[in-house]
Amino acid sequence: MSSSSLQKVLSEILAFAYRNYALTKNEFYAIFEMLFWPMISLISVGLLGEFLYLEKDAVAFIIIGVITLSVIQIAQIDVTYVMLLDMWSMSLKYIIVTPTPFYRMVTGAWLFGSLRGFISLVLLILLSAWLFGFTLSLPLTAMAAFVLGILLSALLIGIFNCILILVFGRRAEIFAWTLSAIVMLFCGIYYPITILPEPFRTLGLLIPITHYLEFFRSFYGFQTVFPDPLAIAIVETVTYLALLLVVAEISMLRARKTGLVLKLSD
Amino acid sequence: MVKAVECRDVWMVYRTFIEKDTVALRGVDLDVEDGIIFGLLGPNGAGKTTLISILATILIPTRGEVRVLGMDAFKNTRKVRERINISSGVRMPWGMKVYECLRFYAMCYGITDKKVVEDVISEFELEEHRNKRFDDLSTGNKQKANLARAFLNNPEVVFLDEPTANLDPDMAKRIREMILRIKDERDITIVLTTHNMKEAELLCDRIAFIKDGRIVAEGTSEELKRYTKTSERVILKVRGNVDKLNLPYPFKLDGNSLTVFVEDAEKALPSIVVKLAEQGINVESAKMEEVTLEDVFIELAEGS
């Protein structure tokens, strides 16, 4: 690849990071959703743990859940904005008509979402250490693998939301806010998935976040369903990512054939 | 020579889960020569926006072949998109400033040079609005910003969907002048849709009338005027009982205003006045006009 075509690829990817940056800079609520709600969740769940006289490990268990949920929620919405923002603005056709492929759009948006998610993560860890004595008990590489894993999980949810918008149009808007919460229900955000009845337990095992959470919690002495949760999480993440990108391309073609693209632009 | 746009037997059927299928285009054939302004005219729901969206690669037709700048629009979509652009409606991403919107779209075309954005801002007279939110602009300035976006990638073919819709006459005039200036400066092909016949006559080198998803007439505005049965008309203000009016020419009555369609207005006027007098109808005033594109449009739209 020549340097000019590499520059072009980077420009196309960074366009969507730039758009989300501009929106975050211009809209107060974007800062609010990045800081306010995660802090409220962390403080309320942490205080609940103290009220119930939970042991330190149990508090760590639920705090890991709160942090993960918050980071995923923030990062996934940035990816979902690839379609959601244009659906709100009725300007979808203008990104369709550019030469930028879908995977570059979501990559750029995900990069900025990851930055926002990472800032929240750091703040939440610091806050939970200060308020509830939470300590990081895992090595830096393991922590990096966990963070990358949950950010990639956010990418999966964001792409899934984009697909729903491309298939169902405005009716899918609600999923942008609820899908990550639904996923969290089955991946054991505040509890081990072993307590879930079948088939929800199996469903939980098919979600990579389940294994990323288990991997993190294993450093706090909690049992895992599989011996190497990180490997399973990575395999699931890569498989779903490839699958979702193919489905997204098909959905885009379908939206252009059915005219949904125009409906979302008028 | 490579044509800017070629369409062969293009059909578009909108299919949904719930509603009945809608046939928007029925076998459209179209050729747009390079370097001209081509107008697509037609009543609401005729298929103009569908056609322009297909040509701009936004929609994929149910059937048919589309070539843009000599390339198959659906096999070489990315290459085609690099060389075309579209302005349709006055929309931009919500929550962003004019400069940010344009910078974003420039980056989508792989343009990293900020000067390109600055140049279109000044070319479309948006300097004083560059740091305003797009949502806060007037409709006219939103249209200018959208046109600026459509020219960011220095396209060879630009599709403009109703570029002066909902604008006041002064702003519409300025936008038309802008389109003509840019077309001359950049030597590009423009395909535009419009409802405004005067605009079509003023801007377009060639015009196609589209009705019920079919191209029903195509040519220069002079060629199209020959589609009507008559070429001139006499407009009279009359007084008297017009209930049983009888004339040897086609006519239209609107209150006390009578329009008579003739081949030669000067020749026909005396006989019309005599015929009216015979029926007890007095003529208060009379004027003669040539047939306009609007008359052609109405005639074709009514299917007469």
Mean pLDDT across residues of chain B:
88
Helical fraction of chain B equals 25-40%
**Can you write the helix and strand succession of chain B as a string?**
EEEHEEHEHHHEHEHEEHEEEHEH
- Strand tally of chain A is 0
Estimate the global geometry of chain A from the Cα principal axes. globular
Query: Total helix count of chain B?
Result: 10
- The stretches of 5 or more residues of chain A where confidence is low (pLDDT under 50) are none
Q: Roughly what is the average pLDDT of chain A, rounded to an integer?
A: 90
Radius of gyration of chain A using CA atoms only: 19 Å
User: Structurally, how many domains make up the residues of chain A?
Assistant: 1
- Quickly count the helices of chain A: 11
> Which stretches of chain B are low in confidence, meaning pLDDT under 50 for 5 or more residues running?
none
Give the termini distance of chain A in whole angstroms.
Answer: 38 Å
The quaternary state of the protein chains shown equals: heterodimer
Structural class of chain A: mainly alpha
Q: What percentage of amino acids of chain A are in beta strands?
A: under 5%
- Summarize the amount of helix of chain A as a percent range: over 70%
In the sheet with the most strands of chain B, the strands line up as: 6-7-8-3-9-10
Major sheet attributes of chain B: 6 strands, mixed
Biggest interface: chains and residue counts?
Answer: A-B, 37 and 42 residues
Taken from the alpha-carbon principal axes, the silhouette of chain B is elongated
